[in-house]
Write a structure and sequence with these properties.
This protein has 308 residues and is mainly alpha-helical. It contains 14 helices and two strands. A two-stranded antiparallel sheet has the order 1-2.
Length: 308
Amino acid sequence: MAKTEKRTVASKLRISPRGRKDLLLAAVLLLPAIYILARTFLYPIFQAWVWSFYKYNLMDGSAIEFVGLRNYNQIFQQSDFWEAMGNTVYFTVFTVGAELVLGFFSALLLNQTFRGRTLFRGMIIIPWAMLTLVNGLLWNWIYQPGYGAMTIILQDFGLLSKDANPVWLASSFQIVTFAAIADIWKMTPYMTLLLLAGLQSVPSSLYEASVIDGAGFWKKLWHITLPQLMPAMMVAVVLRFLGAFRVYDILTVFTNNPTTSVTFLTNNYAFRYFYLGRASAMAWISTLVILILIVIYFRLIKKNAESH
């Protein structure tokens, strides 16, 4: 009986000559894409990991020297790294938290049936579709002292005196905060669309049953919407965490201070001072943080699946 079962399994696994030709053709067609992916993605990652253990400076003309974990040790002793890491964590938590709250209630609104809903769903994409550089330049103009829109609007509403001229981007903390507001304005539509897709998958029968039981808006929100939306919400939060933690481009519009984010500081070491070894080590520290977030995400997904 066992031999018969083994023969049956072996016959199912046996590939016909036509199937072998199809597999060979598929492999040949995939090889160029695999090669390009390896050269442009996998090899640079591996090369950066190797460089992180070397003293490698293109500017001073010194020889490449293996230093082991010295680059990592020096990075953890640098005050500018910890300042950049603090600003990055603050930016990430602030933007993702605000985008989640605003995106959730925007998705709830756009999920309702009302006249012009399709138009509003299309309009909300506009900030997200804008280039990050254009978005940064727009908000940089808004924050300008004197003639900036933010100062003028606050003066018109009486929240600032007419002779007040505050400098909104005076410190690194203010720069990160106001850059985060600009990022929230741009990325909230992205969060809205992800959560809206999750809301549309919630069965309407659950809400109909809750209405019969006399549940109000907040009870339906707490007991039906949030539990059903949790998988989509976790995906949206993790995707935005990964994007916000690597913030770089929008900060370059507001400042030339590399300590406003870890990615900015890494690029500064790599492409301004050409400390490739130290920059590679710093990039790998950021990568490890992101990998930890991914592991936490998969554990939350698994826990959520087991609870259901």
